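call fold(seq) -> C-alpha cells
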Amino acid sequence: MRVLAAMSGGVDSAVAAARAVDAGHEVVGVHLALSRNPGTLRTGARGCCTIEDSMDAQRAANLLGIPYYVWDFSERFKADVVDDFIAEYQAGRTPNPCMRCNEKIKFSALMEKAIALGFDAVCTGHYAKVLTDENGNLELHRASAWAKDQSYVLGVLTADQIAHSMFPLGDTPSKAEIRLEAEARGLTVAQKPDSHDICFIPDGDTKGWLDERLGVSPGDIVDVDGKRLGGHEGTHSFTIGQRKGVGIGIPTPDGRPRFVLEVRPKTNTLVVGPKEALDLRELAGTSFTWAGIAPATLTEAFACHMQVRAHADPVPAMAQLIGEELVLTPDSPLNMVSPGQTAVIYIGTRVLGQVTIARTVSAVERVTA
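ret:
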C-alpha cells in the first residue's frame, strides 16, 4: 500500500512510520505546519509543532530512507481549531482542541489530501487499533495497553476515515518499549519528552492566552440562590468544576469550598456552589458521529460505557436517541463535566462513537446549558 505517515517530530510517529516501512509499504513522511510563526525550540514537554519538531521529523524520515514533505495547514488549523477554541470558551463551554484537530485536520484535511494524491492510508503514532468484525466491518478499538490508550481522541473518526487509517503502535505494551525500539533503530527522538499541553499555548497559561484575545469583561459571581459573592474579569477564564482561582471573598458558613457550577456568558455570570451540585444524571448533545456501523436500534436505550476525558475511566451508562439528541445516562452520577466536552461511547473495547455535550442535567435537579 501507499502510506502517508504523519510525522509530528515525536518518538511515537517516528516508530509508527518505521514499522510501516518494515511492513513493506511504500511510505512517504509528512509534517504538518500548523502555525504561521512556529517557535524555534520546545520547552521541556510543552507544546509541539515547532521548527525543532519539523527538523526531528525530517531526520527520522532521512534515517528511514523515505521521502519527506512539510504541508502548510496553518490557515485551516487556525480556523477549525484555534478560532473554535476561543469561540467555545467565549460561549461558556470547555472545548477539547485535540479532538477538533483530529476531526478537522489530521483525519479530514490531511486524509482528504492523501487520498486525492493516491495514498491508501494515513499512518499515525496513536495508540489504538483497527479490527475487523465477523461480517468484515472495520471497527476502532482501544490499544492493548489501556494505560497508553488514545482511542478517546480518535472517537471523532468516521467509518470511511477508519478504513484509511493505520495505527502500528496499537499492540505495543508500553511507551518504554517504543523508546527502546527507537534507540535500537538509531532514531534521535528516542528520549524526546512527550508534549502534554495545548500546542498553540506552549507556556500552558490558557487563562492568560484567552485574556489577550478576549480582554477583560467584569461580571458577578453568585451562589445557587443568586446572591452576589464577588466578581470576575471574564467568564472565559473559568470552567465547570473549577475551585482554585475563583476569588470569592465570602466563605461558606460551614467552611466548605465552592466550585464553579455554571458559566453564563449571556449575563456574564458565574454560579458557584458545593461539589455535590456538580453530580450529573444526564448528558446530551445533537452533534454526534459513529465510528463505524451505528447501533441498529438507536431509539431504544442500550448499555455502553462512556468516557468524558482522555485519561478518565470509562463509566457504565445507557445511551438513547431522543428526537435529535443523543442522551447518555450514567449508572451513577458523573462529576465535573462541562458542556463542550466530548463523551466517547464504547462497547467493550470498541469505540462506538462520540457526542459533544451541549446539555447536562444535575442529579439535584439543576439544569445547565
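The chain has three domains: 2-185, 206-277, 279-368.
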